[in-house]
C-alpha cells in the first residue's frame, strides 16, 4: 500500500488500534502514525492490569452479585457529578451510552474477539458511603485473563492481519506536530521523523529529528493518550479544588504520554473541555526496577491496612484503602505533606496487596496456571514480595517501636510519634473481637467478607495487627502517582471533534484518553475503575464505525 490512505490514525495505543480494526473491517485503508517504535504497539494498555468495568455480567451473577443497568447508572452519575452546562453536554451523553455498553454488548464484543475473563470480580472504589454518591455499589472490576497485553492482542492480531491484506500501514517514529486543515476540514498531518530507536517497550526514547513528513487522507483520528507522563502539564491544569498541586509525584505512565497532541489539536481548532479533571492515585510506590523515568507502581489495596498521614494521624472516614481516591487525595494535600503510610502485617500483605501493571502480574499476564496456583501458597505473590524486600518505601520489623523508628528513618523529618501510632493500633485491634464494630473500617471489612469472592481471595479476616503471630509488621510509604486524564477533546457520539463554537470539525475525530475517553470527560470528576480501557474501546469503535459508515 502507498501512503494513500482513507484515514490517518495518530497513535497506536488501544483506542487507535480499535478504530483501525473497525475501519479495516469495512475495507478502509488506514495509515497509523506513531512516534514510538514497533515495540510499543498497544502503548499504555499493554502495561495495564486489563481491568474491565462490566455490569450484570455472567461472572458477577455466578458470584451472587446482583447488579443492574439502573444501579450502575446511579453509581456512575453519583461518581461523575456532572455540573457544567457546556463542558458536560457531551460527557453526560457519553456516560449514559457507555454504561449501557458496559451492561450491554461490551462483554460479547470482546468475547467474540477472543478475550476471556477471570471468574473473580474485584470491588474497586467502594465509595464514600452514600447510595447516591461516589463509588461502586457492587464489584464490577473484571480482570482479563492475559491482563493488558491480552486486551491489546485481540485487536492487534486483527490489525496485523489487515496489514498483511494491504489495508494498514504503520509509520513508526513519526511524531505528528501539526494537523493540516484545508477549507475548514482536517485533511492530513505534518510532523517530524525521529531517529530509529531500538529501545525496549516503555523506555523513554530520543526525540532527535532526522526528517519531516506530511500525509493526507479523508479524515484523521487522534488517539494520542493523555498528559500523565508530562508533570508540567499536570501541574498547569491542576484542579485547585484538590488543594495546591503537589511538588512531586511519581509517574504512573510511560514518557510518551506527553499530552502534546492536545495542544496541537486545539491550535488547529478542536475544543478542549474539563482540562482540570484527572485521575491520579494515592498509593504509589517507587519501582525498584524502573522502566520509564520516575516510574511508580500503584498498590491496589484491600481494605484492611491502617492508613496514616505523614504526621501519624489516622486518615478519617471514609478514606480507607480502595474506597475514595479523590477524597483521599484531597485529605492528603490538605495535610500539608505529600506522602502517607500504610501499616499492616504479613497476613494482610499476602492477601490484600495487588500491584497494578501487567508486568507485576506474570501469572495472569502469561496465562500461567502453575504460577497462578502459587498465589494460594503461603507468602505474598512474587512481585509483591520483591517490593517488600527491595522497595525503597517498605519497612519490615518485628515490633511496632522498631517499625516506627524505621519509618522515621525513611523521611527527612521524623514526624511520627510512637505513642500516637501505638494508641491508634491498639484501639483498632480491640475493635476486632466482635463481628460488629463502631470502627467503620472494621465494619467495612466485615461487609466485604459477606461477598464470597472477597472472603476467599481479597479480604483477610479481621485480626489483631499487633499480635506477633500475624507478623512481621510492615509499613509502606505511599506517594502520589500520576495516571489518567479525565478531560480532553470535546467529541460527539460519533467521536467527531467539536470546535469552540459547538459545531463539528469536519474530518477530525478523537478517541481514548485524549478525548477524555469520549466526549471530553465521560467520567466527570471521578472514576469507578476499569473504565478506561473500555472507554478506549467504546470511543475508538465509535470513531471507526462512524468513518466506515460516512466515507
Ligand atoms: C500501569 C497501568 C495500569 C492500568 N490499568 C488499567 C486497568 O486495569 N483498567 C483500565 O481501564 N485502564 C487501565 N489503565 C489505563 C489505560 O491503560 C489507558 O488509559 C489507555 O490504555 C489509554 O489508551 P489510549 O489509546 O487512549 O492512549 P495511549 O495508550 O497513551 O496511546 C497513545 C499513543 O499515541 C502516541 N502519540 C502521542 N502523541 C503522538 C504524536 N504527536 N505523534 C505520533 N504519535 C503520538 C503515543 O506514543 C502512544 O503510543 C492503566 C494504565 C497504566 C499505565
From TrEMBL:
Organism of origin: Rhodococcus erythropolis (strain PR4 / NBRC 100887)
InterPro entries: FAD-dep_OxRdtase_2_FAD-bd (IPR003953), FAD/NAD-bd_sf (IPR036188), KsdD_DH (IPR014614), Succ_DH/fumarate_Rdtase_cat_sf (IPR027477)
Domain of life: Bacteria
Species classification: Bacteria, Bacillati, Actinomycetota, Actinomycetes, Mycobacteriales
UniProt key word rRNA-binding: no
Assigned keywords, A-Z: Flavoprotein, Oxidoreductase
Domain FAD-dependent oxidoreductase 2 FAD-binding: 6-533
Name of this protein: FAD-dependent oxidoreductase 2 FAD-binding domain-containing protein
Record-level Gene Ontology MF annotations: steroid dehydrogenase activity, acting on the CH-CH group of donors
PANTHER family (alphabetical): 3-KETOSTEROID-DELTA-1-DEHYDROGENASE, KSDD-LIKE STEROID DEHYDROGENASE RV0785
NCBIfam families, A to Z: PRK12834.1
Keyword Oxidoreductase: yes
Amino acid at each position: 500500500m502507498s501512503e494513500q490512505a482513507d484515514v490517518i490514525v495518530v497513535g497506536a495505543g488501544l483506542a487507535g488500534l480499535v478504530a483501525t480494526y473497525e475501519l479495516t473491517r469495512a475495507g478502509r485503508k488506514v495509515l497509523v502514525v506513531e512516534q514510538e517504535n514497533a515495540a510499543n504497539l498497544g502503548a499504555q494498555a499493554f502495561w495495564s492490569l486489563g481491568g474491565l468495568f462490566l455490569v450484570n455480567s455472567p461472572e458477577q451473577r455466578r458470584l451472587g452479585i446482583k447488579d443492574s443497568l439502573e444501579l450502575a447508572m446511579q453509581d456512575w452519575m453519583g461518581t461523575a457529578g456532572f455540573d457544567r452546562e457546556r463542558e458536560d453536554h457531551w460527557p453526560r451523553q457519553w456516560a449514559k451510552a457507555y454504561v449501557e455498553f458496559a451492561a450491554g454488548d461490551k462483554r460479547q464484543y470482546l468475547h467474540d474477539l477472543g478475550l476471556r475473563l477471570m471468574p473473580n470480580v474485584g470491588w474497586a472504589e467502594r465509595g464514600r458511603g452514600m447510595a447516591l454518591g461516589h463509588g461502586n455499589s457492587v464489584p464490577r472490576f473484571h480482570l482479563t485473563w492475559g491482563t493488558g497485553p491480552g486486551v491489546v492482542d485481540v485487536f492487534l492480531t486483527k490489525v496485523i492481519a489487515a496489514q498483511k491484506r494491504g489495508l494498514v500501514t504503520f509509520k513508526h517514529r513519526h511524531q505528528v506536530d501539526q494537523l493540516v486543515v484545508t477549507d475548514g476540514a482536517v485533511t492530513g498531518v505534518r510532523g517530524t521523523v525521529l531517529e530509529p530507536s531500538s529501545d525496549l517497550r516503555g523506555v523513554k526514547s530520543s526525540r532527535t529529528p532526522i526528517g519531516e513528513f506530511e500525509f493526507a487522507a479523508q479524515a484523521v483520528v487522534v488517539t494520542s493518550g493523555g498528559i500523565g507522563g508530562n508533570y508540567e502539564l499536570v501541574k498547569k491544569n491542576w484542579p485547585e479544588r484538590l488543594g495546591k498541586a503537589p511538588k512531586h509525584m511519581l509517574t504512573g505512565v510511560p514518557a510518551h504520554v506527553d499530552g502534546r497532541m492536545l495542544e496541537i489539536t486545539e491550535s488547529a481548532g478542536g475544543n478542549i473541555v474539563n482540562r482540570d479533571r484527572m485521575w491520579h492515585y494515592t498509593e504509589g510506590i517507587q519501582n525498584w526496577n524502573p522502566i520509564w523515568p520516575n516510574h511508580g507502581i500503584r498498590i491496589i489495596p484491600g481494605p484492611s491496612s491502617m492508613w496514616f498521614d505523614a504526621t501519624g494521624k489516622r486518615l478519617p472516614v471514609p478514606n480507607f484503602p480502595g474506597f475514595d481516591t479523590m477524597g483521599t487525595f484531597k485529605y492528603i494535600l490538605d495535610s500539608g505533606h505529600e506522602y502517607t503510610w500504610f501499616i499492616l502485617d504479613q497476613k494482610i500483605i499476602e492477601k490484600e496487596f495487588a500491584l497494578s501493571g501487567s508486568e507485576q502480574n506474570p501469572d495472569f499476564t502469561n496465562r500461567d496456571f502453575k504460577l497462578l496456583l502459587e498465589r494460594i501458597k503461603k507468602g505474598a505473590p512474587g512481585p509483591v514480595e520483591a517490593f517488600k524486600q527491595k522497595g525503597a518505601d517498605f519497612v519490615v520489623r518485628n515490633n511496632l517501636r522498631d517499625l516506627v523508628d524505621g519509618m522515621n528513618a525513611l523521611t527527612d523529618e521524623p514526624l511520627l510519634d510512637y505513642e500516637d501510632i501505638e494508641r491508634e493500633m491498639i484501639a483498632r485491634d480491640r475493635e476486632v473481637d466482635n463481628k460488629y464494630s463502631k470502627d467503620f473500617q472494621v465494619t467495612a471489612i466485615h461487609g466485604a467478607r459477606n461477598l464470597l469472592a472477597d472472603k476467599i481471595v481479597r479480604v483477610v479476616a479481621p485480626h489483631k495487627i499487633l499480635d506477633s503471630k500475624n507478623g512481621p509488621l510492615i509499613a509502606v510509604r505511599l506517594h502520589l502517582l500520576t495516571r489518567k486524564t479525565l478531560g480532553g477533546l470535546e467529541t460527539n457520539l460519533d467521536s467527531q471533534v467539536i470546535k469552540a463554537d459547538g459545531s463539528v470539525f469536519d474530518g477530525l475525530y478523537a478517541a481514548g484518553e485524549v478525548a477524555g475517553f469520549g466526549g471530553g470527560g465521560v467520567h466527570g470528576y471521578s472514576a469507578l475503575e476499569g473504565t478506561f480501557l473500555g472507554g478506549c474501546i467504546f470511543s475508538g469503535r465509535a470513531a471507526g464505525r462512524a468513518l466506515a459508515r460516512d466515507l
